[in-house]
């Protein structure tokens, strides 16, 4: 897959809407195929879910590079196998060098927290390095993610963001994209135990 010409393309609102539409048109219908390939191509079963998420993230990021004249299923298969090969090489290197690999942050789980996290009290819930990363990703991404962590449904998150002026229109796809990108940004900055990566 080709990289975007500009880093701003990854966070621009219009490009997010475009990539979201392309992702749901070309990639999402083949999510089961992608997961099946991940099962076959991943040596360690514990890495299957992480690899699957990484593959989807990369498809979302570069889906605009897909040429519609190509057979989409063939493209999906080829790109998935190639990305998994890269991920497996990285996982092997991580195992040798002691790197923690993909983030599995207990501080920011996919499921709602048992404690009541709110946009007002989240600074009391997380460590300094997580808070620093949350500040760096920006308000619109931070609030969308924190609302998900707090247990709100997607429609509720959209409504709250709209009421707070973080969304110009009530758009579920934009809301999903912000949560998706917030997790991706945090993953780039933090290890799986919520510590700042050394290169940050």
Q: What is the secondary structure topology, with strand pairs?
A:
Blueprint: H1 13-27, H2 31-41, H3 48-62, H4 72-97, H5 128-136, H6 139-149, H7 154-163, H8 172-189
Helix pairs in contact: 1-3, 2-3, 2-4, 3-4, 6-7, 6-8
Keywords: DNA-binding, Sigma factor, Transcription, Transcription regulation
Pfam family, one: Sigma70_r2
Domain RNA polymerase sigma-70 region: 30-93
Describe this structure in words.
The protein has 200 residues and is mainly alpha-helical. The protein has 2 domains: 13-97, Rna Polymerase Sigma Factor, Chain: A; 122-189. Helix content is 57%, strand content 0%. The protein is built from 8 helices and no strands. It has helices at residues 13-27, 31-41, 48-62, 72-97, 128-136, 139-149, 154-163, 172-189. Helix 2 (31-41) packs parallel to helix 4 (72-97), helix 6 (139-149) packs across helix 7 (154-163) and helix 6 crosses helix 8. The chain is globular, with a radius of gyration of 17 Å. Mean pLDDT is 78; it is low at 1-10 and 94-115. It comes from Bacteroides fragilis. InterPro entries: RNA_pol_sigma-70-like, RNA_pol_sigma-70_dom, RNA_pol_sigma70_r2, RNA_pol_sigma_r2, WH-like_DNA-bd_sf.
Output the radius of gyration: 17 Å
N-end to C-end Cα span: 25 Å
The pLDDT mean sits at 78
Shape: globular
**Number of separate strands:** 0
* Proper CATH architecture of the largest domain: Orthogonal Bundle
CATH class of the largest domain: Mainly Alpha
Order of helices and strands: HHHHHHHH
> Looking at the chains present, what oligomeric state does this protein adopt?
single chain
Please summarize the sheet with the most strands: none
């Amino acid at each position: 897959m080709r990289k975007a010409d500009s880093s701003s393309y990854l966070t621009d609102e219009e490009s997010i809407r475009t990539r979201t539409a392309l992702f749901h048109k070309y990639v999402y219908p083949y999510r089961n195929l992608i997961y099946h390939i991940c099962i076959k191509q991943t040596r360690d079963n514990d890495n299957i879910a992480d690899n699957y998420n990484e593959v989807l993230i990369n498809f979302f990021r570069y889906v605009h590079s897909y040429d519609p004249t190509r057979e989409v299923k063939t493209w999906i298969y080829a790109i998935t196998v190639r990305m998994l090969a890269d991920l497996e090489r990285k996982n092997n290197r991580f195992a040798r060098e002691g790197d923690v690999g993909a983030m599995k942050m207990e501080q920011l789980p996919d499921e709602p927290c048992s404690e009541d996290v709110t946009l007002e009290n989240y600074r009391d819930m997380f460590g300094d390095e997580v808070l620093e990363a949350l500040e760096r990703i920006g308000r619109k991404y931070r609030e969308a993610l924190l609302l998900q962590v707090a247990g709100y449904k997607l429609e509720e998150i959209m409504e709250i963001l709209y009421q707070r002026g973080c969304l110009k229109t009530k758009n579920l796809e934009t809301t999903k994209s912000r949560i998706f990108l917030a997790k991706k940004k945090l993953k780039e900055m933090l290890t799986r135990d919520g510590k700042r990566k050394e290169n940050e």
